[in-house]
Design goal:
Distance between the termini: 45 Å
Strand content: 15-25%
Strand order of the largest sheet: 1-8-2
Number of helices: 5
Low-confidence stretches: 183-190
Radius of gyration: 19 Å
Order of helices and strands: HEEEHEEHEHEEH
Helix content: 25-40%
Shape: elongated
Mean pLDDT: 85
Structural class: alpha+beta
Number of strands: 8
Protein backbone atom coordinates (compact mmCIF):
# COMPACT_ATOMS: atom_id res chain seq x y z
CA UNK A 1 0.00 0.00 0.00
CA UNK A 2 2.95 2.35 0.63
CA UNK A 3 4.10 1.95 -3.00
CA UNK A 4 0.54 2.53 -4.24
CA UNK A 5 -1.06 5.14 -1.94
CA UNK A 6 -4.39 5.06 -3.81
CA UNK A 7 -4.77 1.32 -3.22
CA UNK A 8 -7.18 0.42 -0.43
CA UNK A 9 -6.50 -2.92 1.30
CA UNK A 10 -8.93 -4.83 3.51
CA UNK A 11 -7.63 -8.16 4.82
CA UNK A 12 -10.05 -10.82 6.07
CA UNK A 13 -8.24 -13.68 7.85
CA UNK A 14 -10.48 -16.75 7.81
CA UNK A 15 -10.13 -20.48 7.26
CA UNK A 16 -13.48 -20.83 5.51
CA UNK A 17 -13.55 -21.13 1.72
CA UNK A 18 -14.89 -17.77 0.62
CA UNK A 19 -16.99 -17.47 -2.56
CA UNK A 20 -14.89 -14.71 -4.11
CA UNK A 21 -17.36 -13.93 -6.89
CA UNK A 22 -20.54 -13.85 -4.79
CA UNK A 23 -18.94 -12.00 -1.88
CA UNK A 24 -17.10 -9.43 -3.99
CA UNK A 25 -13.49 -10.27 -3.08
CA UNK A 26 -10.63 -9.31 -5.40
CA UNK A 27 -8.16 -11.98 -4.29
CA UNK A 28 -7.66 -14.90 -1.91
CA UNK A 29 -4.69 -17.04 -0.86
CA UNK A 30 -5.39 -20.78 -1.05
CA UNK A 31 -3.56 -24.09 -0.97
CA UNK A 32 -4.40 -27.37 -2.65
CA UNK A 33 -6.53 -27.86 -5.74
CA UNK A 34 -8.51 -24.87 -7.08
CA UNK A 35 -11.55 -26.35 -8.82
CA UNK A 36 -13.76 -23.29 -9.43
CA UNK A 37 -13.78 -22.45 -13.17
CA UNK A 38 -14.77 -18.84 -12.37
CA UNK A 39 -11.35 -18.28 -10.77
CA UNK A 40 -7.83 -17.76 -12.06
CA UNK A 41 -5.08 -19.26 -9.85
CA UNK A 42 -1.47 -18.05 -9.96
CA UNK A 43 1.11 -19.92 -7.90
CA UNK A 44 2.91 -17.52 -5.57
CA UNK A 45 4.80 -19.94 -3.31
CA UNK A 46 4.97 -23.45 -1.89
CA UNK A 47 4.69 -24.61 1.68
CA UNK A 48 6.11 -27.64 3.45
CA UNK A 49 4.16 -29.54 6.10
CA UNK A 50 6.24 -30.63 9.08
CA UNK A 51 5.25 -32.95 11.91
CA UNK A 52 6.85 -32.19 15.26
CA UNK A 53 6.71 -32.39 19.04
CA UNK A 54 8.46 -30.76 21.97
CA UNK A 55 11.39 -32.59 23.59
CA UNK A 56 9.40 -32.70 26.85
CA UNK A 57 6.56 -34.60 25.18
CA UNK A 58 8.94 -37.04 23.47
CA UNK A 59 10.77 -37.69 26.74
CA UNK A 60 7.46 -38.55 28.39
CA UNK A 61 5.64 -40.40 25.57
CA UNK A 62 8.41 -41.75 23.35
CA UNK A 63 9.27 -40.99 19.74
CA UNK A 64 6.98 -42.25 16.97
CA UNK A 65 8.85 -43.71 14.01
CA UNK A 66 5.93 -44.28 11.64
CA UNK A 67 2.51 -42.81 10.90
CA UNK A 68 0.90 -45.88 12.49
CA UNK A 69 2.58 -44.98 15.81
CA UNK A 70 0.50 -41.78 16.06
CA UNK A 71 -2.51 -43.85 17.16
CA UNK A 72 -0.74 -44.31 20.52
CA UNK A 73 0.10 -40.59 20.89
CA UNK A 74 -1.63 -37.34 21.79
CA UNK A 75 -2.13 -35.38 18.57
CA UNK A 76 -3.01 -31.70 18.44
CA UNK A 77 -5.49 -31.15 15.62
CA UNK A 78 -5.60 -27.89 13.72
CA UNK A 79 -7.66 -26.71 10.77
CA UNK A 80 -7.02 -29.78 8.63
CA UNK A 81 -9.11 -32.79 9.71
CA UNK A 82 -6.39 -35.16 8.47
CA UNK A 83 -2.60 -35.13 8.41
CA UNK A 84 -0.84 -35.88 5.16
CA UNK A 85 2.16 -38.13 4.63
CA UNK A 86 3.92 -39.84 1.75
CA UNK A 87 6.06 -42.98 1.71
CA UNK A 88 7.51 -44.76 -1.33
CA UNK A 89 5.26 -42.68 -3.60
CA UNK A 90 2.13 -43.62 -1.64
CA UNK A 91 -0.12 -41.03 0.01
CA UNK A 92 -0.94 -41.79 3.65
CA UNK A 93 -3.38 -39.90 5.84
CA UNK A 94 -3.85 -39.88 9.61
CA UNK A 95 -6.82 -38.49 11.50
CA UNK A 96 -5.33 -36.83 14.59
CA UNK A 97 -6.88 -37.70 17.94
CA UNK A 98 -6.25 -35.89 21.18
CA UNK A 99 -7.78 -33.73 23.91
CA UNK A 100 -6.95 -30.39 22.23
CA UNK A 101 -8.07 -29.04 18.88
CA UNK A 102 -7.90 -25.48 17.57
CA UNK A 103 -8.40 -23.79 14.20
CA UNK A 104 -5.52 -21.38 14.83
CA UNK A 105 -2.02 -22.53 13.88
CA UNK A 106 -0.29 -20.32 16.43
CA UNK A 107 -2.39 -21.79 19.26
CA UNK A 108 -1.65 -25.32 18.02
CA UNK A 109 2.05 -24.47 17.97
CA UNK A 110 1.92 -23.08 21.53
CA UNK A 111 0.23 -26.28 22.74
CA UNK A 112 2.91 -28.35 21.01
CA UNK A 113 5.73 -26.32 22.57
CA UNK A 114 4.08 -26.78 25.96
CA UNK A 115 4.40 -30.55 25.55
CA UNK A 116 0.72 -31.33 24.97
CA UNK A 117 1.38 -33.54 21.96
CA UNK A 118 2.35 -33.85 18.31
CA UNK A 119 1.25 -31.45 15.58
CA UNK A 120 1.50 -31.08 11.82
CA UNK A 121 1.68 -27.53 10.49
CA UNK A 122 3.16 -25.56 7.59
CA UNK A 123 6.81 -24.53 7.73
CA UNK A 124 6.27 -20.90 8.74
CA UNK A 125 4.72 -21.95 12.07
CA UNK A 126 7.36 -24.54 12.93
CA UNK A 127 10.74 -23.38 11.61
CA UNK A 128 11.35 -20.54 14.12
CA UNK A 129 10.87 -22.97 17.04
CA UNK A 130 12.86 -25.68 15.33
CA UNK A 131 15.84 -23.31 15.04
CA UNK A 132 15.65 -22.74 18.80
CA UNK A 133 15.40 -26.45 19.63
CA UNK A 134 11.91 -26.04 21.10
CA UNK A 135 10.48 -28.75 18.82
CA UNK A 136 11.90 -31.75 17.01
CA UNK A 137 10.83 -33.06 13.61
CA UNK A 138 9.23 -36.49 13.43
CA UNK A 139 8.85 -39.16 10.72
CA UNK A 140 10.76 -37.09 8.16
CA UNK A 141 10.86 -40.04 5.77
CA UNK A 142 7.04 -39.73 5.61
CA UNK A 143 7.01 -35.99 4.85
CA UNK A 144 4.43 -35.15 2.15
CA UNK A 145 5.25 -33.31 -1.05
CA UNK A 146 5.29 -29.53 -0.82
CA UNK A 147 1.92 -27.86 -1.43
CA UNK A 148 1.43 -25.03 -3.91
CA UNK A 149 0.17 -21.71 -2.56
CA UNK A 150 -2.12 -19.85 -4.94
CA UNK A 151 -3.28 -16.28 -5.39
CA UNK A 152 -6.84 -16.78 -6.62
CA UNK A 153 -8.85 -14.06 -8.37
CA UNK A 154 -12.23 -13.91 -10.11
CA UNK A 155 -11.72 -14.09 -13.89
CA UNK A 156 -13.22 -10.67 -14.52
CA UNK A 157 -10.72 -9.02 -12.15
CA UNK A 158 -7.61 -11.00 -13.04
CA UNK A 159 -6.18 -8.48 -15.50
CA UNK A 160 -6.79 -5.36 -13.43
CA UNK A 161 -3.45 -3.56 -12.84
CA UNK A 162 -4.03 -3.44 -9.07
CA UNK A 163 -4.56 -7.22 -8.97
CA UNK A 164 -1.51 -7.93 -11.13
CA UNK A 165 0.59 -5.68 -8.88
CA UNK A 166 -0.54 -7.50 -5.74
CA UNK A 167 0.09 -10.95 -7.27
CA UNK A 168 3.56 -9.86 -8.43
CA UNK A 169 4.31 -8.53 -4.94
CA UNK A 170 3.14 -11.80 -3.33
CA UNK A 171 5.32 -13.88 -5.64
CA UNK A 172 8.35 -11.72 -4.92
CA UNK A 173 7.90 -11.37 -1.16
CA UNK A 174 6.79 -14.92 -0.39
CA UNK A 175 9.62 -16.39 -2.43
CA UNK A 176 12.15 -14.25 -0.52
CA UNK A 177 10.59 -15.14 2.85
CA UNK A 178 10.65 -18.88 2.16
CA UNK A 179 14.24 -18.77 0.89
CA UNK A 180 15.26 -16.95 4.08
CA UNK A 181 13.42 -19.32 6.43
CA UNK A 182 14.91 -22.49 4.94
CA UNK A 183 18.46 -21.21 4.45
CA UNK A 184 19.51 -23.44 7.36
CA UNK A 185 19.02 -27.21 7.31
CA UNK A 186 15.73 -27.76 9.19
CA UNK A 187 15.79 -31.52 8.88
CA UNK A 188 17.72 -33.09 11.73
CA UNK A 189 15.68 -36.24 12.30
CA UNK A 190 16.61 -38.67 14.99
Amino acid sequence: AMRHPKLSVVIDLTNRIVDLVAEGYDLAIRTGHVADSRLIATQVATRTLYTCAAPSYLARAGRPTSVEDFAQHQCIAGTNPVWQFKRDGREIIHQPQGPFQCNNGYAVMEACIAGMGICQLPDFYILPYLKQGMVELLVEDYRPADEPVWAVTPQRRHLLPKIQSVVDCLQRELSAAITSSVSHNPANPR
